Amino acid sequence: MTEEKSDVVILGAGVSGLAAARDLAQRGIQVRVLEARNRIGGRVFTHRDPTLSVPIELGAEFVHGAPPETLQLIENAGLGLYDVSDTHFMRASRGGLKDTGDYWDRVGEVMSRLDANRVQDRTFKEFLNDQHGDFDPETLDLTKSFAEGFHAAITDELSEKGLAMAEQATPESAQAIDNTRTFRIYEGYNRIPQRLYEGIPDPHSVVRLNRIVTKVHWRTNEVEITARHVLTGEIETYQAKAAIITLPVGVLAAQGDNAIEFSPYPELLRKSLQAVRMGSAIRMTFKFRRRLWEGKADSPIGMLHADSAAAFPTWWTSLPVRAPLMTAWAGGPKAIHAYSLPVHERTALAIETLAEILDFSPRRLSQELESAHHHDWQNDPFSRGAYSWIAVGGAETSKEFERPVDGTLFFAGEGTNTGSARGTVDGAIATGYRAARQVREQLPSA
Fold first, then answer.
1. How far apart are CA 417 and CA 114, in angstroms?
2. Is the CB of residue 35 less than 8 Å from the CB of residue 184?
3. How far apart, in whole angstroms, are the C-alpha atoms of residue 182 and residue 166?
């Protein structure tokens, strides 16, 4: 058995863990980062096809608004950032594609009625039911799909108050750059964790890959982490004065043989996991021989919306880059159903949906398909889902994640972000910095 001591042990080498490690290590605090995967980045996972001019994102893809945490890294690294085309189309009742109008304004008008100050919280489904007299069915349908897709949530459990806090907390800076809301990183999203990693002094000795944490034993200002090396099976012990836990909510909530054992189990963690749930979202990116969708609409297609009953209700292209890529997306119950199927059946469902939207036969689309790219986040034991959302009644309790436990256990990651950045990369980075600051304030001799 290998034993090692440091000031702080960080669980997880996603962007949150790397941000915390960089902050602390640059200040001379001895840090060890334990990561179960054989790579850094967590739910940022970029694939590169040498025949394409743009990368294929298997995890996070979009930079939402103007988050300073992400933009500073992008600018310092000299990375390219480009606007996502905000044009939305759906299949018309008589065939062909029709513009959905101003998609964000329609959805935003419904969402603006969310009440963050309700005395009695209710589900988003109950909220939508109260809007039927004021909005047309298509707008409510788009709003429901938005909540399930964008927030990866189950609408009959999703908190109205929690969703209102997230939506209404969005600053005006979300449109600060040329009045645009959403961007992509031209060189690929994995350049962000790579930049954070490179900012850690001697990162090869700090970040330990292929280490599966099995136990967290702690008392005030003392932590002992037990981990198993994936390749050798060797048991390793890491001792420190504090631990920053950046693992996904799905991993923290896991039970059974693969669950991490906390000794003792923090009551704060128990309360937080009752309020915050791990969402389900599935994305599949298809590379075709050519851009079959061009010419199907009056203007270039940024996003496509299928009927809400479709297995994959949301699609997008790589515009403004004209690459032969089309990405399918589903969240909430539809994602859970898709993940229950074998990969070839998921692929067939997606192709059938796209064929119906574009008025093609599934057979023709399949003949034009060159490759499909997909990562199963739901069944990945180191993520167990996509990103988090707040359950009904949990709007206030979810803030517990921000509190340290006896100045010894600190929690970070997108699931611990209580603002509008929940579920995003920049939200995760921000919590890493927050946890590092808390450690510096409370850790003896830091």
1. 20
2. no
3. 17
Output b/e per residue, 362-373; b: 16+ Cβ within 10 A: beebeebbeebb
Amino acid occupying residue 186: Y
Residue pair 18/42 in contact by the 8 Å Cβ criterion: no
Q: At what angle do helices 425-442 and 191-198 cross, to 10 degrees?
A: 20
Contacts of 387 (CB under 8 A, 6+ apart): 43, 152, 248, 278, 279, 281, 414, 415, 422, 423, 424
pLDDT average, residue stretch 411-420: 91
**What Rg value do the Cα atoms of the chain yield, rounded?**
22
Stretch 257-268: mean pLDDT: 93
| Distance from C-alpha of 151 to C-alpha of 155, rounded to nearest angstrom | 10
Q: What H or E segment, with its residue span, contains residue 8?
A: strand 8-11
Q: Which residue in 93, 96, 66 sits closest to 81, CA to CA?
A: 66
Tell me the pLDDT band of 258, cut-offs 50, 70 and 90.
Answer: confident
Tens digit of each residue's pLDDT (9 = 90 or more) over 309-356 = 899 999 999 999 999 999 999 999 999 999 999 999 999 999 999 999
The neighbouring-strand residues paired with 32 are: 9
Check whether 242 has a pLDDT greater than 90. yes
DSSP category for residue 397: G
Q: What is the pLDDT of residues 165-197, one digit of tens each?
A: 877 644 444 444 444 578 999 999 999 999 999
- The helix, strand and coil proportions of the chain, stated in percent and rounded to the nearest 5, come to 35, 25, 45
Helices and strands in the chain: count of H runs, count of E runs: 14, 24
Cβ 428 vs Cβ 13: under 8 Å: no
pLDDT for res 26? 97
d(CA 15, CA 44): 8
Q: What is the pLDDT of residues 3-27, one digit of tens each?
A: 899 999 999 999 999 999 999 999 9
Confirm if 341 and 178 have CB atoms less than 8 A apart: no
DSSP string of 99-143, one letter each residue: E-SSHHHHHHHHHTT--TT-SS--BHHHHHHTTTTTS-HHHHHHH
- At residue 344, the 3 state secondary structure works out as helix
Average pLDDT over residues 370-381: 96
